Amino acid sequence: MSRRRSLIDQAVGNGRLTFRRMEQADLEQVIAIDQKSFTLPWPVSSFQYELAHNDTSRCWVAEVEIEGKRRIAAMAVAWLILDEVHIATIAVEPEYRRMKIGQKLLIAILKDAQASGARHAFLEVRETNLAARKMYLKLGFEEAGKRPHYYSDTQEDAILMNLDTIDAALLEWLD
Ligand SMILES: CC(C)(COP(=O)(O)OP(=O)(O)OC[C@H]1O[C@@H](n2cnc3c(N)ncnc32)[C@H](O)[C@@H]1OP(=O)(O)O)[C@@H](O)C(=O)NCCC(=O)NCCS
What band does 8 get if pLDDT is binned at 50, 70 and 90? Predict the structure, then answer.
């Protein structure tokens, strides 16, 4: 896969933050972040499928570069289906949390999706995941319903969250 460089480059601490498409070479770090972040991490084969075989999938990373060393700080997978973008997963490496990397990665995904014709965004989040719910609400998502007992490990409900209109005005506001 060709290297598709950043939509946004920004400073993080004393390093540089880049948002770009995920590559095969990123998988080891992406999987490590997934495993640290979720009680039901994806199988490795799911990331490989999303990266190499799913045409609707856009896989993202946030990469931090400090003194010439690069490290993946966050990852996300989004599915673009007609005019909708579904955020399938998003996670930030624990030591990089609360640095606005999650929200910036999500904004980068929404911008990219809007440029490809998406007008709505959609996701599921665990009811108890207050940090993520707060991030989505902050970016304009609204809680639109529940899927009862959605998560097989705890039988927890999923909250459905929608972003009704992704347009130039929203992206300007997010900037
Ligand atoms: C949810 C997650 C992606 C947020 O990433 P992050 O980079 O730490 O979040 P940001 O620094 O961009 O925060 C953006 C906003 O989210 C909210 N937020 C994030 N973490 C929070 C926390 N621990 N407690 C309360 N609010 C939080 C805040 O509103 C924050 O805005 P503020 O800094 O102005 O208060 C990260 O906590 C994570 O990877 N969690 C584990 C995986 C996960 O739950 N993914 C979501 C699945 S649906």
Answer: very low
Domains recognised in the chain with CATH numbers: 9-174 (3.40.630.30)
Encoded tokens for 66:
């400090």
pTM of the model: 0.94
Distance of CA 15 from the midpoint of ligand 1 (Å): 20
Instruction: Please report where in the chains the tokens 């070479």 appear, as a residue.
Output: 25
In whole angstroms, what is the distance from residue 172 CA to residue 168 CA? 6
Residue 169 CA to residue 175 CA, distance in Å, equals 10
Mutating to test ligand 1, I would choose from 103, 124, 159 the residue with most ligand atoms within 8 A of its C-beta, which is 103
Closest by CA to 126, choosing from 110, 109, 138, 143, is: 143
Which pLDDT tens digit goes with each residue over 16-39? 999 999 999 999 999 999 999 999
Q: Quote the ligand 1 centre to 102 CA distance (angstroms).
A: 6
Q: How large is the angle between the packed helices 130-138 and 101-115, nearest 10 degrees?
A: 50
Average pLDDT (53-69) is 95
